[in-house]
Amino acid sequence: MVNLGFGMMRLPQKNKDDEKSINYNQLNTMVDTYIKSGFNYFDTAYGYHKGESEVALKKSVIDRYNRSDIIVADKLPVYMINKQSQLNEIFNTQLKRTNAGYFDYYLLHDMGILSDKENKDIDIFSFTKDLKKRGLIRKLGFSSHADAEYIENILKKHPEVDFIQLQINYLDWENDTIQSHKCYDVACKYNKPIIVMEPLKGGFLVNVPKKAEKLMHDYNGQTPIMWAFRFLSGLDNIIMILSGMNNNKQVIDNIQIFNDLQPLNDEELNILDEVVDIINENIAINCTSCRYCISVCPIGIDIAKLFDMYNHDMIEDAPGYTVCGNIYVNYSKDEKNHIASDCIKCNRCTDRCPQHLNIPKLMDDVKNRFETEVYGFKK
Ligand code: SF4
Ligand code: SF4
Question: Which ranges carry the 4Fe-4S ferredoxin-type domain (predicted)?
């Protein structure tokens, strides 16, 4: 059975505008449902929910279950490291926040700029080697949104890497920018087990265009989510599929799917090719709502939210031009919200985007779409 990992990146919040306001009642229920069904892998990171995800791991999982029954994955925020001494500081903070004692899986988070660190004489791999020797981490891996060539260079240079976490889903499989298929092939070439992130592309593959959904449903009555997970279950070498679950219904639904996960057959794979074409015809901005860009925006623009409105406006059979436009205009009326025209084109966000989006340019697209007389926009 392919394993379902509990991704702790999009936890339920009490206040949707406050990432740190974890709803522990809801989260505890979700964790209980997940563990009672025989699953035990929790994936957090230093930066998720502005540090509160690691605390949530402690409160909802470590404090309430036997540590030895739980598998904990945590991530070192490589992108934040500017000097060697930060490595210890951050790792100790992670141990303290989670109270995990050790990490079963420890990942270098979002590797894509290692040479930059090496140029500053920061030796991350010696640091993690020492952690492993001391029993503080059990398996070392890295997550990356970089291209296949970059990933291969790391694996060549660092055979001590035990596993790799990659963005793989059927929509990105042959995508030239994300390169899921090529990255997957590199991981297999070096015999590295794979943990899958973004299997539903940040929820994007849950609400596909109606035409694509109908195609899938008419063939076997299954939902787009089932098709997405079944696609992954047909790939060798995958040890875990992470799902960033947000409520107990999602946990229950996912468990049901994973308890009887059958790979897609050849006919279904052909249908999926058509589904990909339909989605690609309709997709406007390839944003997964990971929110990595938002913390670096000096203006405080909720980039993911604006892109989401834009995508819904563009997608076939969505509620419609006027509805999304009205939502945008109403959003702009609240003075604490920032909109596309507030972007100062500082470019700080672009390096942080795992999907390699040209965010400042897309901000112009959003502005041109919504901030017009058609919508009665007034700033
Ligand atoms: S380019 Fe625009 S959206 Fe990006 S960080 Fe700067 S102000 Fe924010
Ligand atoms: S624009 Fe990029 S970094 Fe920002 S939320 Fe979307 S995918 Fe993530």
Answer: 335-365
| CA dist., res. 87 & res. 76, Å (int) | 8
> What is the distance between the alpha carbons of residues 217 and 205, in angstroms, rounded to a whole number?
14
Q: Which residues contact 145 (CB under 8 A, 6 or more apart)?
A: 110, 112, 167, 178, 354, 355, 356
Residues lining ligand 1, CB < 6 A? 296-297, 299, 301, 303, 343-349, 359-360, 363
Among the listed residues 93, 89, 71, 67, the one whose alpha carbon sits nearest the alpha carbon of residue 8: 71
Name the token pair of 19. Answer: 């990432």
pLDDT tens profile 107-163: 999 887 655 666 678 899 999 999 999 999 999 999 988 889 999 999 999 999 999
What does the alpha-carbon distance between residue 42 and residue 242 come to, in Å, rounded to a whole number?
A: 9
CA 49/CA 29 separation, integer angstroms: 19
Residue 237 has what DSSP assignment? T
The pLDDT tens digits of the residues spanning 260-300 come to: 999 999 999 999 999 999 988 887 898 988 888 998 999 99
Neighbours of 259 (CB within 10 A): 11
DSSP 8-state secondary structure symbol assigned to residue 3: P
Ligand 2: centre distance to CA 350 (Å): 9
Q: What is the pTM of this model?
A: 0.83
Determine contact, residues 166/143, Cβ cutoff 8 Å: yes
> Closest ligand 1 atom to the C-alpha of 348?
5
pLDDT, mean of residues 333-362: 93
Pairing assessment for the beta strands 4-7 and 238-243 based on DSSP bridges: parallel
Q: Report DSSP state, residue 6.
A: E
Give the CA-trace dihedral at 94, 98, 99, 105, to 10 degrees. -70
How far is Cα 233 from Cα 323, in angstroms, rounded to an integer? 38
For the CA of 290, the closest atom of ligand 2 is 8
* Count of Cβ atoms closer than 10 Å to residue 233 Cβ: 16
Task: Provide the token pair at 318.
Answer: 């969505």
Cα–Cα distance list, 6 to 40, 245, 322, 339, 348 (Å): 8, 7, 37, 33, 30
CATH class of 4-281: alpha beta
User: Whose alpha carbon is nearest atom 2 of ligand 2?
Assistant: 353
